[in-house]
Amino acid sequence: MSKGYYNRLGTRQTGHGCKSGKTGPLKRKDIIKRSLIRLLSDGFFSEWRTADEIAWNINKELSKHWTLLNGHMVGSLMRMYVKDYNIETKKRSRLKYYRVANSRIRGNKPTAANLGKNTSDSK
User: Fold this and answer.
1) Which structural domain, as residue segments, surrounds residue 97?
2) Looking at residues 40-46, what average pLDDT do you find?
3) pLDDT per residue over 20-32, tens digit each?
């Protein structure tokens, strides 16, 4: 039996009618995590980005029936990734901005496998 795959809508397809296979949409947290990893690997953070810009790009992936992200939620979400991916922050007129700190770290493509691992320890 195959382990499954994700279709273009982010739905996990396994078993194909089997009782043991889990089907249905991914969890909201998993979709948010995957879309943030995609933004990190695509070079979205090469320029300074506000929390609202990040939220807008992540909300493209989420269903409209779920609670969408706002700037405050992005701030708490980005706290987990600031140290791991060497993301710089600055605050200007009550807005917080994020970007990847240097080009050497940008070369390390974030994936689901190294999510949560500190890239500065692996030097």
Assistant:
1) 27-106
2) 89
3) 556 677 889 889 9
